[in-house]
Structures are given as C-alpha cells and as structure tokens.
Fold:
Amino acid sequence: MKFFIQELVNGVTTGSLYALVALGYTMVYGILKLLNFANGDLYMVGAFVGYFVIQWFGGPMALTIPVPLLLVIMFVLAGGGCGALGVAIERFAYRPLRDAPRIAPLITALGVSFFLENTVLLLLGAQTRIYNTPDFISFGIGIHIGPLSIDIVRLMVIVLSVVLMIALTLLVARTKLGKQMRAVAADREAAEMLGINVDYTISATFFIGSALAGIAGVMGGLVFNQVYNLIGFVVGLKAFTAAVVGGIGSIPGAMLGGMLIGIAESFITGYISSTYTNLIVFGILIAVLILRPTGLLGRAPLQKV
Amino acid sequence: MSLPPPDPGIGVDEWVARSGGRREYAPGLRGDAQRLFERLGWWQRLGLAALAGALVPLLTSNDFQLQVGINALLLALLAVGLNISVGWAGLLDLGYIAFYGFGAYGFALLSSNQLSTNGVHLPAELSIPIILVLAATLGLAVAVPSRRLLGDYLAIVTLFFGEAFVEFTNNVAPSTFGGPNGIFAIDPIRGFGGQIITNRGYFYVLLILLVATMAVLHLLDTSRTGRAWRAVREDPLAAELMTIPVNRVKLMAFSFGAVVAALAGTIFAAQQTSVFPTDFDTPFLILIYAGLILGGAGSIAGAVAGGLILSVTLDGFLRSPTESGYIFYGVILMTLVVKLRPWQRLAGVLAATVALGLIAHTIVKAISPAAVAGGPQSSGWIASAVHNWVIVPNNPTTAGNIGFVVLIGLLIALVQVHGRPRTILLPPTLFLAVCVWEGRLVSEPAITRQLLIGAILIVMMNARPQGILGSRRVEVV
Structure:
C-alpha cells in the first residue's frame, strides 16, 4: 500500500509537469493549429534558467537569500524568460508562415527545436548540471499521514501546478484576453474583422504557453535534479502525448492527459520495468487514438467548407 | 529554333502550361543549351545525370572521398523517399528514420550470426525483397491508427514510432538486437554468386538504386496515383468529393516511403557491416528533412540535389576549418550578391563592413590588447587576411557565446526591418558573424553542423519554401 501511494504521488508530480508543458502545446494548437515542437525545449531552457539562478545566489550549499525568495525568483525569471523566448520564436519563425500550407510551420517548428537544443549545447556544453535540491530544501518536511508521505518539493510542485491551471482556466473563461483567444481559435478571420488584435492575441498565447513550460522546467529541475540540453525532448514527447490523449486543443484535456500519462508512467516504472515505460506509453497513445480519435475530452472538429 | 507550345498534360492547368511558351531565353550559346536541355525527355536527363554520377568514382580512388559519395547517395535516396509522403502527399512523417533503421536491422539480422548459432546468411536477392515487403506492411500498420485523423496526429504517432524504434533496439533482447552495442559482422551484399565489398562497388549499387528509384517514382508521380497524392495534399475534402479514396492514398504514400527508406537501410547495413541504435536517432531524421527542404519538397530532382549538396557539404567540407571557411564566406558573399541590388548598395555594405572591422579592431586593441589577442581559430589565407580585422579575445569561448546570442538577436532584427535600417544594420551583423565564426563556431564543427541543419529548416521554410529546385505552387482560388 505504501509503495502504491508513493508511486501515485510520484506519478501526480510528473503528471503536473507534463500537464503544464501539455498546456503550451494545446493552447498553441487550439489557436494556430500548429504543433509547436519547440515547447519541450522551452522546458529545458526554463530548467537551465533555474539552475543559473541558484548558482548566481551562491550555489545550493551557501545561498545568500532565503529559499522562498529564491524559488520566487527562479519561477519568475524562468517563466518570463521562456515566455519572451516563445514570443520571439513565434514572431520570427511562425508568423510569416501563418497562411502557408499546414506542413510548412510544422517543419519550421522541427528546425526551431533542433536549433534551440544545439544553441544550448554550444553555449553550455553537453555536461549534466545538478540542482542539488536536498542541499537547500529538506525533503524531510512535508505531509506524513499514515502511508501517505509527500515531501515539500513535490507538494509545492503539485500545489503550484494546480494553482496555475486554475488561473489559466479562469483567464480563458473570464477575462477579455481569454475571450479574444477563444474567438481567434474559433475563426481567425472573423475575429480580425470584429476588431480583435490577432497578432497580439497569438503572441499572448505563446507567452503563456511558453512561460508554463519554463516554470515546469524549474519544477523538473527541483524534482529530478538533472539538467542537460536534451531533457526537453523526452518531456516534450510525453507532454505531447498527454495533450493528444486529453484531446488536443482542450485545456482541461491537457491537464487530465498530463496526469494520466504521469501516473501511468510511474506505475509502469514501479510495477513492471523502466525499460518498457516509453513503449507502453506509446501503446496508450495508439489505443486512445483508435478508440477515441479526438482524445478523452476533445470534440470532433466541425469542418466548414 | 522555336517549338510549338506543348500540350498540357492531364491534370495541368492550361494557363500554367502555356507559361512555358512565354518564357524568354538567354541569347547566344546559353539560350541554345537551355532550349536543348528542355527538349530532352525526362529519361534522357536522368540518364545524363546518372552518367555524370558514374564518372565520379573513376576520378578518385581515395576511400574517404568514396565514403563521402556513398553518404551523399544514401541521403539523396532517403530524401527521395521522404519526398513521397512529405512533398507529394503532404503528410508529416516523423517516423521515417525508423523504417531506415528497420531496413538496416532487418538486413543485419538476416545476414549475420544474431538469430541462431550458425547464423542466418540469406543471399541479398532473397533478404532484401523480404525486408522491403515487411517494411511496406509495417508502414501500413503504423499509419492505420491515424488514418482517419487530422494529418497532425500522423506526425505524433510517427514521431513516437521513431522514438519507440530506438528504445526497442536499445533495450529489448540485447542478445538478438545487440542493445546499445549494435550488431557487428554483417555480411556484405552477397547474391547471384558474387559479393560487393569495396566502397566503389557500393557507390555503384547506390547509384543504380537511386536512378531506378527516381525513374519509378517519376512514373508514379505522373500516374493517377501521383495526381491523387497531390490532390489530397492540396485539399483532402475536395479530393474526397472527386471520389479519390483519401485514406487509401495516404496509406500508400506512407508505405512507399517506408519501402524506399528500408532499401536505403539495407545498403547502409551491408556497407557499414555494423548497425547501432544511435544511427537511427532524431538528428539524422532532421538531416534528411533539411536535405529535402533545401532541394525542394515535391520535386524528385530537388530532393536528390538537396540530399547530395547537404551531405557533401557537411561531410566533405565542414570537417576541416579551412574548407568550412570557404563555405561560410562563400555562402555569405553569394547571398549578398544575390540579395543586394543595385551593386552600389552591395559595394557600400561591403566597404562599411571592412571599415567597421578595421576601426573596431584598432579601438579595442588600443583599450585592451588582450581582447584581440586570440586571432582567428582557423588557418589558411582567409584567416591571415582577417587576422587584423576580427575581434577574438584570448579565451574566445565566453565572448563567442555572448556574440552568438547577440548575433541571433541581430539577425531577427534584420528580418523585421526593411529598407534603409536594414542596410545600416547589415555591416555590424556581418562583422559580428565573422567574429563569432572565427572565434567560436570554427572550433566546434559538430555543433555548427547541427545548428546549420536547424537553420536550414527555419530559413528555407520562411524564405524559399519551394527549395532550390522546386517551383512555387500556383494557388488557385
């Protein structure tokens, strides 16, 4: 039982990360019908930003500022930096292709992802950097009730993800920007005719999606400890699967899909073997695509002619 | 010598077809050559290209150069196969590399001691057809789950399939598939009583296969199936209304691509006599895409040219700093000459760049001699020419990294502005580019290679989506 709950907690933690990255994929897909492969690499950039913030303030052993302040700075810088990077990528690489055939921006996205990975390789080298989270946050603190035991880092990741997801849901449902996003997603031309600033809305979407990926990167660094230039690829792939399983284009779908993939992965690793994790996740994806082609919460697209 | 306007073929718009008749030819000998070339049938052109290719091994007996040629032909073959799904049917196939791997591993298993103690050593005339049939079936099996779905789901499923292939070969049954250590001691191509072991032999095998594939694909492209592919690419809904079986046509394109990739894989395995999971990882997939996009998706000649150019550039020239310098400066100069008109503007920009470098170098040297002490990291006459011009500090790594980031920022800014600001921004960008190149990129050829491949995809898609040889699509509204 204890093992089961432990795996569940791990699964929900990774699931939260996948869900945050998946939100970036699904929002961009909803508004532009573009699979932004570079989103996983923004996760990697966010993780590096967090790492360098720790180094900047004295390193994990000798922090010069209190830990909560450090965490806030990490999240703000990673979120803001990745958001800005996402907006720049959209402006430079995707905007000129907005009316091109569907396949053109997809190939560009592939190029952007590859370019980002190798830019980081050039700037920082291939070695793995370690966050050393236990040196400044004690894993002993946390909730321990019976068999349930969540350390403070995982607790923070889960709580912060849930808060971000609620905030995002409210943003899309209640604010003017959210309304604009929904309008642009429904019909870009009609939205433009109604006076909505489409470029601004798309930029804002990219900012939010990329910022979430960056924040997830910091969380990933805190939980998994290791950062190198290719971590974004696997996380991106899983988040991608999460977005599709949940129904691409649907925000609650991305959250549900992320959690499902995270938990499934954790249980497969715990009970079967870590060798087959990715193969089984792939199997889940295929099964969902065959049984429910639009994902769990997605709706079949209306085709207008 | 004037020709009557050619009859428009089936599926070709009459107005578009007549545009050939309106073409103006260059005067003199060049125009005659142009006209002569246009009178040749496609098979005559293909034959000429094949003949030119066949002469290459006669010029050199250097094994390294032959290997460069083999790699180039392999990439061209792979790009032609990828062109079927990406260029013609408009399907983003990200698991393409796995079929290449499937062919290689299939051949490796059927021609080595992996499967049983005495080994299975099928002759090539038996093993290769078996592998191709299996690859076609596998292609169908991968595409079927996503056949009804939006085209994007195919990209996801295939991407995962490609990853799964690498995971599978890395982890499952290491005694059979070799795990990360791969499979060794694979037979060369052995069949019909002979065998091929020299690089020259493999060069010709690949050349013959490439030419044959090109011919088959050309016939396919101009057939009913080819037209159906293009119809599906342009508008699946309209194609369906024209009674084209959209799903079946998509599956066919996917399957054909898988077969070509597997074919390339078998030759690769036989020539290398060993296969490793890392040979079939994502970076190589991106390389194939870059080759196809560079040459022009949708055209056979484009795919082949792109694959050949990219492979020869990367393998042949980007290995030594001096030769990669020729490529770097050559490409920059060529782009400037093509893009900057009139020539006064070009001359102005070049003069400003040279002046800027001289002034900047002098000022920086006066302030701190260590900041220019590094000098170019490459050698050769170009390096000595720019030695007193570039700013490369003693320890160029950090400065080069910062310069690289600033350079990307400048390039983005350059794309966003037009007219006079762009002309003003050009000299500092060029100067910085040379500094970053001489100070940092030259000493990291492997990473520069990858950056170049990524940049090709982004820049080509934005600036010239039809590639070098492709023609811009006529959009009918």
